[in-house]
Design a protein that fits this description.
It catalyses: gamma-L-glutamyl-(2S)-2-aminobutanoate + glycine + ATP = ophthalmate + ADP + phosphate + H(+); gamma-L-glutamyl-L-cysteine + glycine + ATP = glutathione + ADP + phosphate + H(+). This protein is of the alpha+beta class and 488 residues long. 36% of the residues lie in helices and 25% in strands. A hairpin with a 2-residue loop joins strand 18 and strand 19. Helix 7 packs across helix 8. The mean pLDDT is 94.
C-alpha cells in the first residue's frame, strides 16, 4: 500500500501556529463567508476548511473529470425532451406542489414558444468514494484500488455553488503542507479554478446574445452568506471582459421592477438583460408568494439566456436521476458506448416509489434496513434528505399513500474514511475521522440540437465528520478541502 504523507501527528505548538497562519491566509485570499447575523457591512469570517488536503486516488479524480463532459451532454439532451420529462415526472407532479409549479411554467413557455433557444448550464456532479470492504485511509496507507468505486450522489443543475471560492483551496493546502514540513510533488495538489471556466461560459453566452450594452443578472437573495463565492464569479467575468456589467437583483425585484418589451427582451431598471444566472429559486422557500412565481414566469418567457432554464432545473430532479439509471435510458441520448459506460459506472442503486409492487417492495426494504438507504425529495441545495430512524418513520407514515411518489430511494454509500483537522468558526480543532464528497463542475451551452460549448471546469471537495449525514458548506456542516492525489 502507498504511504500516507499527510501530517496527522503534530505537536500542539506547531499545530496552533499552522492553524493561526492558515486562518489569516484564508481571510486574505477570500475563502470566506459573510456572517449570517448582526451588522455585516465589510465583515467576513473564515469559511469552514480542512487544515490539510484529504487523500484521493488519482484514478478517482480522473474518472470524475473524464465523465463530466458526457454528463453535460446527457443532461442537456434530457432537458430538451419534453415527453421524457413529462413521463418521468408525472407521478411527482401529482404530489409535489413545488415541482408542479415549475412544470406549469415550463408548459406555459413551451406553448407560447421559446423566445431564446440558447441556454447556458452550469452543473455540479457530486460523488463519493465507495469502499467495498470497510477499510479506510490510515497513517500506514490506503486501501487497494479494487476496494474503491466512484459513485454519483446527485447532479445539481441550479444549486451549483462554490465554483468561485474553491479556487484558493489548493493554494491554501500547499501552504499548510509546507508549514508542516511535508514533502509532496506539484501534481499531487493540482491547480483548480473552476470559477474561471464558468466565467468563460458566461462571457460566451453574453456574446451569443448579441447586444454589447446588455448586462448579466445574478438572481440571488438579499442576505447571502455565500456572497463572496458569487462575487468571485462576477470578478472573473470582469477579468475576461471589462466591458460586461454585472448586476444583482432578487425575484421580488424582478416582479416589481422588470418588464418585457414587445419582442420579449427582459428590462430591469432600464437595463436590458443578456444572461440570468439563478443563485436562488431552487427551493419552495424562494417563492413565499405569487409575486416570486410571477417573476420566474416573466424570466422564463423572456429573450434573456437563462442559467438554468426551468426545464433544465426540472432535469435535476432526483426522479430523473432514478429513471436514468434504468436500462436503456442513458442510451437514448448518448450513442457512444464508451461514454455510456463512463456514465453508468458511477451510478449507485436507485429505486422508484411509484404506487405499485415495485414501489411497495422498495418501501419494505427501506423500513427493514433503514441504514442502507437514503430517502430523497425532488430538491437541490442540501438539508432535504432523510436517513435512518427519521427515514423509517417517514416511510411508515406515507409508505402506502401516493405521497411517497414525491421521493426516490437511493443506496446509502459507505464512503472512504480518513483523518483530518476541520476548522470551523467557534469550534475547537481536533484530529477527526472524516469523509468527503468530490464534485466536478461542467459548463454547457446549447441551442436546440446544436452543442456550442461543453467543458469540464474543475472540482470541489467537501469534507465532514464521519457519521454526519448532510454535507452543506453554508450550513457549516462540511468544510472546503482539496484532493491530495496518490497512486494505488
Amino acid at each position: 500500500m502507498a504511504t500516507c504523507l499527510l501530517p496527522h501527528h503534530l505537536k500542539d505548538e506547531q499545530l496552533r501556529e499552522i492553524l493561526e497562519l492558515a486562518k489569516d491566509w484564508v481571510l486574505i485570499n477570500g475563502l470566506v463567508f459573510k456572517p449570517r447575523t448582526g451588522s455585516t457591512d465589510g465583515v467576513s469570517e473564515c469559511a469552514p476548511f480542512a487544515l490539510f488536503p484529504s487523500v484521493v486516488p488519482r484514478r478517482i479524480l480522473k474518472q470524475a473529470a473524464d465523465c463530466m463532459v458526457d454528463f453535460n451532454r446527457l443532461m442537456y439532451r434530457v432537458a430538451q425532451d419534453h415527453e421524457f420529462l413529462k413521463e418521468a415526472l408525472k407521478s411527482v407532479i401529482r404530489v409535489d406542489p413545488f415541482v408542479r409549479a415549475l412544470w406549469d411554467i415550463h408548459c406555459k413557455v413551451r406553448e407560447e414558444g421559446l423566445a431564446q433557444p440558447v441556454s447556458l448550464d452550469h452543473y455540479r456532479n457530486d460523488f463519493m468514494i465507495k469502499v467495498t470492504d470497510g477499510t479506510k485511509i490510515t497513517d500506514a496507507g490506503i486501501p487497494p484500488s479494487s476496494a474503491m468505486e466512484l459513485k454519483q450522489i446527485e447532479l445539481n443543475t441550479i444549486a451549483s455553488a462554490s465554483a468561485g471560492i474553491i479556487g484558493s483551496a489548493c493554494r491554501l493546502h500547499r501552504y499548510t503542507l509546507d508549514l508542516a514540513g511535508k514533502a509532496y510533488s506539484p501534481e499531487q495538489i493540482p491547480d483548480n479554478d473552476p470559477g474561471l471556466v464558468v466565467a468563460r461560459g458566461m462571457v460566451k453566452a453574453w456574446e451569443l446574445y448579441g447586444n454589447k450594452s446588455a448586462v448579466i443578472l445574478f438572481m440571488g437573495i438579499k442576505e447571502e452568506s455565500n456572497i463572496f463565492d458569487q462575487r468571485l464569479l462576477e470578478f472573473k467575468v470582469h477579468q475576461l471582459n471589462r466591458s460586461i456589467r454585472v448586476i444583482r437583483r432578487t425575484l421580488s425585484d424582478l416582479h416589481s421592477r422588470a418588464s418585457l418589451s414587445e419582442d420579449r427582451r427582459l428590462i430591469i431598471d432600464d437595463c436590458e438583460v443578456a444572461l440570468v444566472l439563478l443563485r436562488d429559486g431552487y427551493s419552495p422557500d424562494s417563492y413565499p408568494s405569487d409575486r416570486e412565481w410571477s417573476a420566474r414566469l416573466l424570466l422564463e418567457r423572456s429573450k434573456a439566456i437563462k442559467c438554468p432554464t426551468v426545464r433544465s432545473q426540472l432535469s435535476g430532479c432526483k426522479k430523473i436521476q432514478q429513471v436514468l439509471a434504468r436500462s436503456g435510458a442513458v442510451e437514448k441520448y448518448i450513442s457512444d458506448p464508451a461514454a455510456v459506460e463512463r456514465i453508468r459506472a458511477t451510478f449507485a442503486g436507485q429505486y422508484g416509489l411509484d404506487m405499485g409492487p415495485e414501489g411497495d417492495d422498495a418501501v419494505k426494504k427501506a423500513i427493514a434496513s433503514p441504514d442502507k438507504y437514503v430517502l430523497k425529495p425532488q430538491r437541490e441545495g442540501g438539508g432535504n434528505n432523510l436517513y435512518g430512524v427519521e427515514m423509517k418513520a417517514r416511510l411508515e407514515e406515507i409508505g402506502s399513500t401516493p405521497e411517497r411518489e414525491a421521493y426516490i430511494l437511493m443506496e446509502k454509500i459507505a464512503p472512504l474514511s480518513e483523518r483530518n483537522y476541520l476548522v470551523k468558526q467557534g469550534l475547537p480543532i481536533a484530529l477527526t475521522d472524516v469523509v468527503s464528497e468530490l464534485g466536478t463542475y461542467g459548463v454547457h451551452i446549447g441551442s436546440g440540437e446544436k452543442e456550442i460549448l461543453n467543458l469540464h471546469c474543475g472540482h470541489l471537495m467537501r469534507t465532514k465528520v464521519q457519521g454526519t449525514d448532510e454535507g452543506g458548506l453554508s450550513a457549516g456542516i462540511a468544510a472546503y478541502d482539496t484532493p491530495f492525489l496518490v497512486d494505488v
